[in-house]
Each structure stands twice: as C-alpha cells, then as structure tokens.
Amino acid sequence: MSDTTANRRDFLKGAGALAAAGSLPLSLVEIAFADASETFRFAYISDAHIQHIEGTKFVRNWDRGLIRAVAEANLLTPKPDFVVFGGDLAQLGTKAELDHGAEMLSRLSYKTYCVMGEHDYYLDLGAYWSELFGPHHHSWDHKGVHFVVLNSVLTYDDWTHNRWPSAEQRMLEMAGLDNPNSSPFMVGEKQREWLRQDLQKVDKGTPLVVFSHSPLQKIYKGWNFWTEDAEEIQALLRPFAKATVIYGHVHQIQYNQIGNITFHAVMATAWPWPYPQSYAQAQHNLPKLTVPMNRANPFFERDATGWQFIDTSTGRVAMEYNLYNNTTRKVAYNPATGQPEDSAFQDPPRRIPPQNHY
Ligand SMILES: [Fe+2]
Ligand SMILES: [Fe+2]
User: What is the 314 CA–ligand 1 centroid distance (Å)?
Assistant: First the structure.
C-alpha cells in the first residue's frame, strides 16, 4: 500500500463515527477448536457492488448495505480478530467505485483481508484494486488455522485480451449475470501451482480455510456459479482432514460437502440473486444439501441479505446467518453425518412458503 493510501485511510478512520443500524449483511466466524486453547472469530462481508452514478453520486442502497455491515462489525462483542471482504466491492471496477468502497471498508476497526471479485477485476485486470488492497492471492496462519485467499475470477487469455474493443466493454460483458458472452471463471494454472507449493508446507491436520469469490465447485455455468478448474483445486485440498471453502458471488445461502471439503456461501450486502433451480433454463441446480431460503421480497430492500457468525468448533465451520429481520439460520457441520446441515431449517413445516414470481 502506498504512503498516500495509508495516510488517506488513517485520516478516514478518524473521520467520524458511523450511524449504527439494524440488520446486517456480514458474516462472523467463530473458531473454537476442541484440541486448541485459543478461540477466535472473524467477520465476513461480501458483494457490496458500490455503483457510481456521476460526480459524487453513488447508488444509495448499495452504499447503505456496506455502511451498515461495517458499523455492525465495529460493534461486535466479542470482537472479531479480522474481517474478510469477499469480492465485488465495485460494480464496474472504476477508481471512483473502488475508492468509495475502500473508504467505507477503512472504517473497520480490524485488519481486513480482501478477495477479488469479477466486478473489481475486469476493467484494469485488478491493477488499481492491488494498489488499495495488495496481492490477488496470498495465505497466512492465524491461531492454528491456515487461511488462503485465491483470485478465482480469472478466465481464458483470449477472452480477456483479444475479444473486446475496450476495457470498459470487457467489464460490461463480465458484469452481467446471465450474459452468454461471458466466460467461465478459473483460478488458473499459475495460481494453482502457487497453491500447491503453499499447501505443501502445511501439516495436513491443520484446519484449512480457503476464501474465493466464485464457488470452487460447479453449480451453474450459465451464471458463472462455477469455477472451471474446481476439480483441480479440490484435489489440492483433498489431503487436509478439515478443509473449508467460503465464497461470495452467488449472493445467497448455499452449502455442500464434497469428500473432505465443506463449502459455504455468504450473503451479499447489496442484493440477493435468485436460486438457479428456480429458472427453467438451469442445467445445474443448487448443491444437493442446500435448503433454499424464501426470497426475495421486492418491497423490502434488505430482504435475503444478512450477516453470518461462523463457529468452527472441532475445526469445521458452522455459519450462523443473521437475516434482515433479526432471525437466524445456522448451517453447521454435523460430525455424525459428515456434512453441513441446516440445523434450524430442515423441517419443511417450519419454512416460510416459497413465493411465486411472474
Ligand atoms: Fe456479486
Ligand atoms: Fe461476483
């Protein structure tokens, strides 16, 4: 980070208190290992999609989602050790959007790790994002857990470099959810080799938590709920007894178990995407373990957004989603079945009936 950026962030930290708000789209992760003395938590905020209109105007609703998440994170008790921002800070990757988003994130009172989203990347291929937030992929150890951040939104070189008349056009093509001109996300060979070498140094009994923007599993290619080289990455995680992948991008609750790897999605601060299985053209559905939540009410701007606590007793992640109306929903790893289960939502009579959309 440049001196200028650091000074600016310090300045912004002192720039005034945020108004506290009600419901919040962030995740809090608690790690409490049965075989370790140290318990800690971290918070997770994702998919803010800060959108520039003109001059100093930004889309208010997306701003409010992120501001509320940051305010709530700062009020948490006990305090999280750090915060992860899960990508898509910007809508179209511009400096104005990234600066505005970084200003809001800089008000967090905790160390913050950022994950690259496709909306941050495809204007300048992550150049300005790096000036603000550092490397696209990296790893660190924290109280007995190995954490990895990957840039999972790369794609084929030909699509990136040869297909579009301008960087702006490339960004617009990748920004649409169901755009057939888009291209599948991938981590790519170079980063996979880095990951292979990084994980080589880690004891296979160490709990491993990987953050990516797209799911490191294949759900629905048409909407890029998909990572093209998911199987290759899963193979690198397979030797670990306890591996968890936490991803954004899908703007909805999802969970799955593939072998030893547990997958959890987090909600967005901006808006919810529909579940792909609700659309006739879907060639892939939700992971089979996921119980969809009822969503979204178009008359309530924060519907199907929320925030999450993550508790990893025994080294497995349990997500507690805090919904806009202050109800919670917990998706916890069940050692008896060896998979994550929705502990508060399995019983069909207890579910809110699905809405019809026309
Ligand atoms: Fe997103
Ligand atoms: Fe995304």
Answer: 31
